[in-house]
Structure formats: structure tokens, C-alpha cells
Amino acid sequence: MDARTRILARVRRALRERPKALLPEHPHLLPKEDPLALFLDRLRENGAEGHLLDEEGARALLQGFPGAAFGRGVPEAFRLLPELPPEEAPLGVSWALFAVAETGSVALSGEDGRKAQLLPPTHLVLVEAKRVYGTLLEALQDLNGLPSALGLHSGPSKSADIGQVMVKGVHGPGRLIVAVLL
Amino acid sequence: MRAKAKLYPKEAARLLREKPGVREAVTGATLHFERNRLKAYAEVPIEEWRERAKAVKDHVLTHLDHYLELAERRLRENGVQVHWAETPEDAHRVLREVVHRRGVKRAVKAKSMLTEELGVNPLLESLGVEVYETDLGEYLIQLLGEPPSHIVGPAIHLSLGEIQKLFHARFGTPLDASPEALAQVARRVLREAFLSAELGLSGANFLVAETGTLALMENEGNIRLSTSLPKVHVAFVGIEKLLPRFADLALFLPLTARAATGQRLATFVSLIQGPAREGEEGPEEVHVVLVDHGRTALLHDLEAWETLRCLRCGACLNACPVYRQTGGHPYGYVYSGPIGAVLDPGLLTLEEAYPLPYASTLCGACYEACPVKIPIPRLLLTWRHRAAEEGLTPSWEHGAMRAFRKVMESPALYRLFSKGLRGLPLPQDLLPLLKAWTEGRGPLRPSPKPFHELWKEVADGR
């Protein structure tokens, strides 16, 4: 007998006369009023920067960086800077699948390219306003097919492991900028 | 990891004597966590969340065979290689195979308590693999050769001064380097490791059976990097970590974050379905090792099985007035604090973990903090009861309890003793024998009459 068989047999033996607990339904949450405003608030509380912009405004955000690593899903209109490898780029630009107001998070697909999301010190995430959900539950229930890796980013990389002092940019980007596109 | 829980009382006393700074550091950090948790709990209908989370976990645990098989099927469909491990040796076999086949020289590791149980680092080092703990706190204690002292903040027992000294000796940074400067040094060293490692190691906060999704929570980005840059990712998952449905993450991710650090969500959440697809960045191979290591025995235990609901958030450690005095090291096993005191006897044997259920005042703060309502105070009593039954408690305690029972059962004896005890010397009179106790406390003064006499006077006067 292998480990799998033995583990499953022991689980079944343990549960033989155990009353079975019911699985509760997911809650029915009221839709958040104005998820956009809540999203921007929570992002800021998480230490990130949030902007509600039109295409022109978002393009202006990119100015001032000498180059960037771009996620695959970033539309041509925003690829204004010289493209650099993510290991060297001062900026990573990603296109988010969706955003969540409740937690102030953007969701990034592995399909878009993980290095641009993680290696540069600053991460600019573009997300369409219509893709901002009120709650995490709505967002997860609405997902159609899962990428190899889905990252939820809710702020700059941080740690308080050194003497309980909060430090930003420990391994991932120390600065997260989110542009919500109108 | 070899358990040294038996030495808890001695080790706790030694630590307080020899490293008084630890109490200060741990108290500061845990009170900070605790304040944040309370604020975060107050923001949501927390009772409803806790009840729901408890119900989902109980459902999974009472259908564990079904969900394990479902998870295995889904993982395989996603291209993940699934392994089962009853013992650390089983887990080591998986690692050995990967290391040899892929010629692994360097591994980057995300923080994981289960890998501490399994002794993953010593095994890899014996195979000649350089292992880098990449969580900043874990990296610090790896440099010091210490085990983690807290489930979430492994290095909370260290003061800034100690870390400055460590980095000065190791990297030549100035003795007054700022936390930012120290973190930048660690970032440089570990970035190099991320970019060159062939193997990434992690645990998992959750494994969703419905979709075969591994969920991992963190604040630094090191887990995302460890599971994205190396060509092979091996995740160790305790069999109790399952969730039934993908959408259950909408409850468990925020609940765990609120309980652990008071955040609405961990800064980075990785939801991993499998290896990178055609043309994508990411690992070519993903392995999941489903680990028992004492968990099925705990599931079998009709009283203690509820402990398996644990999310490893550390909230009970932060709430515990006993843990706060010493941090986790004296507990002598991977899991410390209140959850360790009820989990360790289940995962090890009660004999090995015997003193831990006594490391509590039974104040109940751990239960109030627990996001899945594990009845820790009741379980502490269960384990104490069993310790007495198994004859692990000292024989004088048996004698004393028998005598106490005799006295409490007989009104005449009770009256005699309640009068007689008043004649005994008081603690403050026994100085200097009890100096440590009487210092800083007001003198004990028994009332002139026992309660039952006072009560009789009141009743008669009516």
C-alpha cells in the first residue's frame, strides 16, 4: 500500500461515524454603492496610489520614466516608453483582469507576464473602470477560466520584520500606482 | 523538527533570565498585531464571518476523503504533479528526486510552517543545495540559525539593535543602519537568489478542491517571486488546508488577513493553477505534496479534531498573555502559543508535548481572537485531563487534588481548614524565599473571617 491509500483509509476510518457538517451557501451581499470611489479610498489606505483617468491622463502618468517593462495585455496606446527587460526596468506596466473595491486590490494574470508585475521598483497597473467589482466574492464568482497564476496586489511590497518598523519595497515593487480608465 | 516541548518550563524561565529583551520585543509586536486585529474585526460582521468559516472548515474536514480526491484530480488536470506524504521521509523523497533530476544547486523558499515540521532545509542542505529563506523575518533567523518564534512574524523576538549587529557582522553595514537600509541589503542578496535559483519552495494557505488552486498570502512579494521565477515549484500542503469552492476564498482570504495582521487582504495573494502555459513566464513544473504527518490521527480524535480548522493566522499568539512573555522558542516545537499548546500534543504525542497545555491561564482570549472559533480553552482542559489520566502529571499533584477533594466534600473539614489556613505565614513573611513574587505586588491580607461565616451573619441578620 502506498502513502495515498493509507492516508485516505485513515481519513475514512476517522470519519466513519462522524456527523457530516453542511456546506453553507455563499452570502448574498448587497452591491457596494459606488465601488469606484471605495476602490480608490481603499487603495490609498493600503499605501498605493489610485487615479481615475481618461486615456490621455493615464499616458501622462508614464511620462518621467526612461523606460518600462510591459505586460502582454497592455494596449499599444500605453506603450509609449522604450521597452526594457523587467530585471532592469524602473517601471513595470500591467493590464489588470479586474479590481476589487472591498480590499483595494488589482488582479493580474500570469498570461500578462509575471516579471513586469514583480521585478521593477514601481508597478503601474491599468484597469478599466467597468472591471472594478464591489466585493471579492462577486469578482471570484464572475471569473471565467483561471490563468496559470492570478496575483492579487493590494499595495506596495512591505515588511515590518526589522524591529517592527514598516519598510516598503522589500522584494516586490515598493510603489504601486493604479490608473482606473474611464 | 525534533520536539523539545518537554523542557518548556525550564526554557521559558531561562529565556526570561538570560534574554530579558525578548519579552519587550514580543510584547510590543503582539500588542501591535492585536490592536490591528481588533480594528479590522470591528469593521465587518465578524461573528457571521467566523461562524461561516467554521462551518465551511467543518464541512471540509467531515468530507475530507472526498475533497482530497477531488483536489488531486483537479491538480492533475491542471498539469500539477501530486505526491502524498505520511512522514517527513516521504516528503524528502519527492525533494531528492527533483533535486537530482533538475540538478538543483540553489533554492528560494517562501515562509512555511509545514516545511519546518518536515525539516526541509536540513534535507536540502545535506543534498548540497543552498537554501534561501526569502521572507525577511525568516531570512534574519536563518542567518542566526534560529527557528521561527511566531507563525506570522518569525523574527518578532529580535530587536532592531540585534539585527543591526547581525548585518554589521555579516555584510559590514554600519551599526546604526536604518531598517530601510538593512532591508535594501537583504533585497539585493535575495534578488540575486531569486534570479538564479532552480527551485522554489512554498507552503500554502489554502488548496481549493473545486479548481485545484493553491492560495498563498504575503506582504513582501517573496512568495510571488519564489513561485514565479524558478523553473520548478514544490508546494507542501497539509491535508487540512482544503477549501471546497473557489469562491470560498472570498471569505477565507480577507478573514485570515484581518485575523493575522489586521489587513483587509494580504498585500500579495497568489492563486496558482499550475505550471506556466505555452509562452508564459513561470515554472515548467509544479508539484504539490499533500502531507499527513499526524493530521489523520488528530482527525480521528473525537474531541481534538476541531483543531484542524486552524488557519495559522497567529491571532491566538498575539492575544495570549503567556505567549507574550517569552515568544515561541521555549515551546520547543514548530507551533507555539495557544494553538501550539493544543496542536502539538495532537501532532506529536501528549507525552512529548506534555507541559504545553499548561502554558495558559485559561483566560479565553485565544478563543475570542480565533477566526474559526477553535475552542482552545476547552481543548487545553481536555489535554490536561488526559495528561492526568495517563499519569504524566507529578504524583504530588494527584495527592494534593485528592486531599483537596476530601476537604471540599466535607463541611466540617472545610470549616476547619478555612480557619486553620489563616494561621499560616503569608507570602510576604516568607521573604526572601518568595521575593520574586512579592516584589511589585501588594501584600496579601486574608479577611478576618471566612466567607461562609460572613454569609451566615448576613443571613441571620435579615
Topology:
The complex is a heterodimer of chains A (182) and B (462).
Chain A: H1 3-15, H2 35-45, E1 49-53, H3 55-62, E2 69-70, E3 91-95, E4 98-100, E5 105-109, H4 114-118, E6 122-128, E7 132-133, H5 136-142, E8 149-153, E9 158-159, E10 167-168, E11 175-181
Parallel strand pairs in A: 1-11, 2-3, 3-6, 4-7, 6-11
Antiparallel strand pairs in A: 4-5, 5-8, 9-10
Chain B: H1 8-18, H2 20-42, H3 46-62, H4 64-77, E1 81-85, H5 88-102, E2 106-109, H6 113-118, H7 120-126, E3 130-133, H8 136-144, H9 160-171, H10 179-196, E4 199-202, E5 206-208, E6 213-218, H11 222-226, E7 232-238, E8 242-243, H12 249-261, E9 268-272, E10 285-291, H13 295-300, H14 315-319, H15 323-326, H16 337-347, H17 350-353, H18 365-369, H19 376-389, H20 395-409, H21 411-420, H22 435-438, H23 451-461
Structure, explained:
- The complex is a heterodimer of chains A (182) and B (462).
- With 182 residues, chain A is α/β, with parallel strands linked by helices.
- Chain A has a single domain, classed as Rossmann fold (3-Layer(aba) Sandwich).
- Chain A is built from 5 helices and 11 strands.
- Chain A has helices at 3-15, 35-45, 55-62, 114-118, 136-142; strands at residues 49-53, 69-70, 91-95, 98-100, 105-109, 122-128, 132-133, 149-153, 158-159, 167-168, 175-181.
- In chain A, the strands form 3 sheets. Chain A has a 5-stranded parallel β-sheet with strand order 1-11-6-3-2. Chain A has a 4-stranded mixed β-sheet with strand order 7-4-5-8.
- Chain A is globular.
- The N and C termini of chain A lie far apart (60 Å).
- Chain B is built from 23 helices and 10 strands.
- With 462 residues, chain B is of the alpha/beta class.
- The longest helix of chain B is centred in the first third of the chain and has 23 residues, at 20-42.
- In chain B, strand 5 and strand 6 (213-218) form a beta hairpin.
- Chain B starts with 7 loop residues before the first helix and ends with a helix.
- Chain B has 3 domains: 1-43 and 314-393, no CATH class; 55-295, Rossmann fold; 407-461, no CATH class.
- The radius of gyration of chain B is 25 Å and the shape is globular.
- In chain B, helix 1 crosses helix 2 (20-42), helix 2 (20-42) crosses helix 12 (249-261) and helix 16 packs across helix 19.
- The mean pLDDT of chain B is 94.
- Classes of the chains: A alpha/beta (182), B alpha/beta (462).
- Chains A and B meet through helix 1, helix 4, helix 5, strand 8 and strand 9 of A and helix 2, helix 3, helix 4, helix 8 and helix 9 of B.
- Strand 8 of chain A pairs antiparallel with strand 9 of chain B, so a sheet runs across the interface.
- Chain B: GO terms for molecular function: 4 iron, 4 sulfur cluster binding; metal ion binding.
- Chain B: This is L-lactate dehydrogenase complex protein LldF.
- Chain B: InterPro entries: 4Fe4S_Fe-S-bd (IPR017896), 4Fe4S_Fe_S_CS (IPR017900), FTHF_cligase-like_sf (IPR024185), Helical_ferredxn (IPR009051), LUD_dom (IPR003741), LutB/LldF (IPR004452), LutB_C (IPR024569), NagB/RpiA_transferase-like (IPR037171).
- Chain B: Keywords: 4Fe-4S, Electron transport, Iron, Iron-sulfur, Metal-binding, Repeat, Transport.
- Chain B: Residues 301-322 form the 4Fe-4S ferredoxin-type domain.
